[in-house]
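Researcher: Batch entry, complex prediction.
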Amino acid sequence: MAKPKKTPRPKAQTPKGFRDYFGAEVSQRAEMLQRIAGVYHRYGFDALESSGVETVEALGKFLPDVDRPNEGVFAWQEDADADKPGDWLALRYDLTAPLARVYAQHQNDLPKPYRRYAMGPVWRNEKPGPGRFRQFYQCDADTVGASSVAADAEICAMLCDCLEAVGIERGDYVVRINNRKVLNGVLEVIGALGDEPRLSQHFQEMAENLGKKMTAAKVGIVLRTIDKLDRLGKEGVRSLLGPGRKDESGDLTFGADLSKAQIDVVMSFLEAKGGTNSETLINLREIVGRSRIGKEGVDELEKISELLSAGSYGPDRIVIDPSVVRGLGYYTGPVYEAELTFEIQDDKGRTRNFGSVAGGGRYDDLVKRFTGQEVPATGVSIGVDRLLAALHAKGRLDTTDVGPVVVTVMDRDRMADYQAMVAELRQAGIRAEVYLGNPKNFGNQLKYADTRNSPVAVIEGGDEHEKGVVQIKDLILGAEIAKSATLEEWKDRPSQFEVPRAELVAKVREILAQHGLEK
Amino acid sequence: MAKPKKTPRPKAQTPKGFRDYFGAEVSQRAEMLQRIAGVYHRYGFDALESSGVETVEALGKFLPDVDRPNEGVFAWQEDADADKPGDWLALRYDLTAPLARVYAQHQNDLPKPYRRYAMGPVWRNEKPGPGRFRQFYQCDADTVGASSVAADAEICAMLCDCLEAVGIERGDYVVRINNRKVLNGVLEVIGALGDEPRLSQHFQEMAENLGKKMTAAKVGIVLRTIDKLDRLGKEGVRSLLGPGRKDESGDLTFGADLSKAQIDVVMSFLEAKGGTNSETLINLREIVGRSRIGKEGVDELEKISELLSAGSYGPDRIVIDPSVVRGLGYYTGPVYEAELTFEIQDDKGRTRNFGSVAGGGRYDDLVKRFTGQEVPATGVSIGVDRLLAALHAKGRLDTTDVGPVVVTVMDRDRMADYQAMVAELRQAGIRAEVYLGNPKNFGNQLKYADTRNSPVAVIEGGDEHEKGVVQIKDLILGAEIAKSATLEEWKDRPSQFEVPRAELVAKVREILAQHGLEK
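Model: Structure tokens for the complex:
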């Protein structure tokens, strides 16, 4: 008989683009989500948790982001039933597509308007990169079925409260708002400027290839171009709005082929931000006031800032800013973005603004795919991992978890005594554990306490047991003394205390309090 | 040109076996997980969050549960790279398999022993049934690398603390412990009883088909049989340990073919529970004392109960119970199970014990698949959804979320005033919202407040605005009055109050406090 082949051992590795989170990384995120949920709830939003798996049919197979139509999902086919092939299922790629499905499925049971929040992992089947993972958290709040801009204003206020709830101080952030309708006004105005649009041969072909009307294709280029303001700068944007642009490699990107007058209008929109919100509104009215939709957009921005001011969310926090272009292609009305204004050092030691941590806006096609009915919606997504990184960069998050008090095992036969000690400490609310490894080598036990970042070790050998005392070692102080052994003032401070067994909890609590570690 | 076919609208439905969770269902589970995490943390366990996706290779393709080898996972193949086929990925089916992968992958960076907790969704590709979903939560704590039964004892204590932390009172639960080693002792003892095991023809064939030694096959039947004690009762188990058993349909199940003396030993083990833990230990020693492994198992049980007593986890909460058989086939040492002892009414109105809500035990092959090295581990899994159901059955959970205070919109042009009111309420920590639907029909606004389960509605029309007052409607009291309109005492109690605008927050807070709804 042939010897059966030995199966090779499996590799102990996460799939590419996935990672594990340990200790404080997990609990800090959990706490942040809980605080944000608290704010969302206070604003009247109800929790919704849908599952990670949806039918591909309900989800739509690809992300809506026009620039990356190939960004995919993780999908698989269910086993076939007796008479029909299995459904295709997929992991959700965001929390908005499931919201659309939920709203269409349960709409008779949901309040109208429906304010809901959702937080949880989403999955993207894309090439992983540095700091770019294929599973990450989203933390969204959306109002479905409210066409009033009061809904948008409310979400901007909520965004401010969320940032403050997680530890971003007032003055360290700003919520910038813009409106797709103003941009539509800009497009109307430039349309009126060029009765007979100048179209290059290339542009005509492209529009035909896309099966779009020429104006639609042109609008697409304008939208994509202004979305690149950050990356290309003003001159780059001007070139792309005009005949086109050569990049560093010499490759030519064809432009929207607008006239100079048209380009001037677009640029004046992007640069319309004044010293105050009122000034910005005046500038915008000047640019798009002739367009009905444009004027409506400016009116909405004015209304939003007025509603927010009434709730004391003033211009120190809410800024109308036409240069907020991200998402203008996707959204249909107001858009908003929270930006942290403080500077941080990036990985390469360069100082830069931290930038955007949340964004959202109004979109009106939420459930249309399912029901044919247009339902207005507006919502925000907070980038929890970005926010954690920001707090970390500001030194407001201690990423090392405080370890447990470690009760060492001097005498294996008296494990019950040591268990009694940890039980007392835990019942007093103190994080504590008995050493559960092989107790033979005492040095290993202290090394373990060090690995665990323990503040205190408890020692009770035979002598102590007989005398009815325990030794309590202040490991934080001990480490400080070890670091600065030359300093006389440290040398004289004892870091180990002998106390009666009955005073164990009190003494440990005292030491924790000295280090600011009490609960 | 042929008219393009209209794409049919997608169905707005969860995939079969998945469901959505709304409002209080979500927040109550989140709160429960947070409380359990608090206890786990206090016991020195560190959080671990791995992703939902693992390689099939790392995960192992199927569940370890011997009785259901076809219980599957959701799996798919990654897109191929240029030169090699894509990896197979899958959704995790529990939190233990990922722990094994994490421990093998990161072992040099982890403390030893490693106490970790994990909570999150897992997925099973099985036929859904009533109340049986293909995504559900697990909430685990495991200690890896500690061979001492002190680790098992600690987890039993922690289980008690978790139950009390989520609202199960002392006296309403018991943690029952048993030990696989005692069962191994039983098997040794019965092996010694039958020098020449009596084997039916069928039994011999089966053992050969399974490619196992006859004794191994026999042990398998004994294990599976005692695991069916709950379902078959003592007589059923006796039959299956002996020649076999005819079920109601007349089908014969072949048995383990043990002699009467052997069966008596197994049954005496299952019925060894005495009035106290000490009595049980004496009974067990009598049955398996002659077997080395059996004696070791009884010693361990004694040690565990001694360690727990030292931490004041006494016999009112910790019960040695040989009839705990679930998992004895899978685990290698101590096993434990938390059972709620109170009675509830089931769906059909029958009274029954609520039963098990958590279980676990010791298993030693955690990372062996990856490293070849045997690492001892012990851990528990708390059934969060079962626990929520238990609290609900006891009336300790209110599943209706308290709705927000609703500020109604009497005058669409004064939205800023209404926004100012909700801002004040929210800043005072009160859940509140302004009505964001079409305000034309005031009745709809009150209906909305009703749908939202709102405790209070705020009304400010033109008259009130001029007078500088607001109307505050106590909706809870209003509903009570409406229900019992014949009672004179109710009739005279007003449920609507006019207060100065400046007293809005104070009055709302007062009403909430009257209904026990203050924060």
